[in-house]
């Protein structure tokens, strides 16, 4: 069967940006920025994207587009059957693995969109928000039903195919996501006291920047750009020969970073408006599902129309961001199963969906009936989260950069990024230098840091 391509350049960019812009932009980046030196952190983050993120993203694009194959097939082709083919398989596994727990959070955003829309937070005292969240996630049914719903939507998009499913949905959802972000930002910066929130987010404080902060910025850049999970490689396998790879990578990175910074403009003005200590809002789930419902309810007036609309739009924004990222993760596995096992797309996608439903349900139940199942002090959800973030991603990223920098044929690399000589590539040497030296060393340091090695030195 003929392989599909994206129908347009803008479709390709929006789909890849949809993969990049996700929960990481909203629930991690703003708080990391605020606490780690504001604009100083943003500068370091952008540097990480330039020297580390872009070279790896371009390499992933290149391998995907050159081979026009799923990630495992792609690495098999470019590695000429050597052991490097395992890098592709690792990417597929990582994407699939992440999807299992990422979908659980996607499901929570749907529930919170509904809670916001029906004004469920009206009059809730500050300490009640934690209860609401804990009761919800511990319930054996409700989060699981949302999970099935969330995965059902992904499945629907995926079986419609690359052009009519992924590309078309990205063309609707990404402009919508951007529009909602702008509306929420405008509402938030108009709140009394907003300037202190903006100051918290942006005021450069270089004294906060130490090696840990730099490593954190690198880790965040990596996750946020969806590197090393097969997504970019898979999507690029649907790019046509004329798509400018470096330019597309720059566009995706810019969109991703702009949305992440705007998310900070949405969150902190409201936090300061209600006089909350920004260092106590938490990060990730506790920020998003415990602190923020409280913040929004009170910043925009308890139970007022504005509060309801703002909060509903915010969770809907999270939902759309999570959905487009989850679709990209599903596609990695679907393309793999379909092409490697010669299945029809619908059948391949169904197999992937079934496995995600089972493992995702286990992750979801790990906050309730399965909370007793732990390994190294982590519940099932955290095991998935930590194993992918702490092990699979850094290992995958390092292998990709080493492969692209040292093993991949130089001429092939140059031909592909220049689209057969049509485009100028003055950055080529820098790119190779980063792939060969900077990226592997930097990722190695992040890896060791995340494994806690540097803490040993600090504490001794
Ligand atoms: N980049 C997404 C985020 O920032 O939330 C998360 C993600 C999506 C990671 C897709 C990996 C991926 F393949």
Task: Please describe the topology of this protein.
Elements: H1 9-20, H2 23-35, H3 39-67, H4 71-78, H5 85-117, H6 128-138, H7 142-159, H8 162-189, H9 194-202, H10 211-224, H11 231-236, H12 245-273, H13 285-299, H14 305-340, H15 345-365, H16 380-407, H17 410-417, H18 428-450, H19 453-459
Helix pairs in contact: 1-8, 1-12, 1-14, 2-10, 2-12, 3-4, 3-10, 3-12, 3-16, 3-18, 4-5, 5-7, 5-14, 5-15, 5-16, 6-13, 7-8, 7-14, 7-15, 8-12, 8-14, 9-12, 10-18, 12-13, 13-14, 14-15, 16-18
Bound molecules: 4-fluoro-L-phenylalanine (PFF).
Summarize this structure as a short list of keywords or feature phrases.
460 residues; mainly alpha; 19 helices; binds 4-fluoro-L-phenylalanine
